[in-house]
Amino acid sequence: MTLSGKKIWITGASSGIGEALSHELVRRGALVLASARRRERLEQLKTDARGPGRLEILPLDVSETGDASRFVEQAESQIGAIDVMVHNAGISQRSLVSETSLEVDRRIMEVNYFGVVALTKALLPRFVERRRGHFVVVSSVTGYVGTPERSAYAASKHALHGFFESLRAEQYPRGLRVTMVCPGYVDTDITLSALNGDGSAHLVRETTNKNGITPDACARAIAKGIEKQSREVYVGGKEVAGIYLRRFVPGLLATALRNVKTT
């Protein structure tokens, strides 16, 4: 599938992977609708976009699940029938289970899982009616491998896999496609806004992320996965091996995870 002329909606587009992917898709000729909470960052993204494609913006907060149908209506009124929905918005976490409040668990699930599910259910009838549509879900290696101090984040990403694998099985015969993207460490600011156990911002740019692949490299891999309508896309460094260890030697992986140092 060529991306030229495709109408692609991306959430979490104001920074990191979402920002890089927005630019990559515009360079490939797509009509991109970029969404995030911060209007000023979206406006800058639109100003900076270069390529044969075009970028429009739609500010929104994915955690406002009651407005999902309205968001979909606004999106299609701006750029027309959506071809590809990229669920990228999300928030991370850094705290032990024993030190994480239930409010933090709920907040992360609201953004990372329920916000995605709400937009998916609002858009799904339109995809089914047109007998085409592609959901691209930015999960994580943590969507397969639960690691220390990531319990809520890992739970939200595991939940996405269960939901979208079911959706894929149900709707594949009707022309709908699902691509799960599992990045490892990417050099973004995600750890700055990650939640501590008490709900405060982590505000630490961790070495693992600083040493990760660039957002542009991640974006190129995702764009290729969209073009190929891949079932899953794994992108990152050696940490991606955790997915294969989980599949083939889970006992070895479990032992290794027990030895991971926590902060």
Fold and architecture overview:
The longest helix is centred in the middle third of the chain and has 29 residues, at 102-130. The chain has helices at residues 16-27, 39-48, 68-79, 102-130, 151-171, 190-193, 207-210, 215-228, 241-248, 250-258; strands spanning 7-10, 31-34, 54-57, 84-87, 133-138, 176-183, 232-235. It has ten helices and seven strands. The mean pLDDT is 96. It has a seven-stranded parallel beta sheet with strand order 3-2-1-4-5-6-7, with helices on both faces. The chain is of the alpha/beta class. It has a single domain (7-258), classed as Rossmann fold.
Short note summarizing the structure:
The protein has 263 residues and is of the alpha/beta class. Helix content is 47%, strand content 13%. A seven-stranded parallel β-sheet has the order 3-2-1-4-5-6-7, with helices on both faces.
Question: How are the SSEs placed, and which strands pair?
Answer:
Blueprint: E1 7-10, H1 16-27, E2 31-34, H2 39-48, E3 54-57, H3 68-79, E4 84-87, H4 102-130, E5 133-138, H5 151-171, E6 176-183, H6 190-193, H7 207-210, H8 215-228, E7 232-235, H9 241-248, H10 250-258
Parallel strand pairs: 1-2, 1-4, 2-3, 4-5, 5-6, 6-7
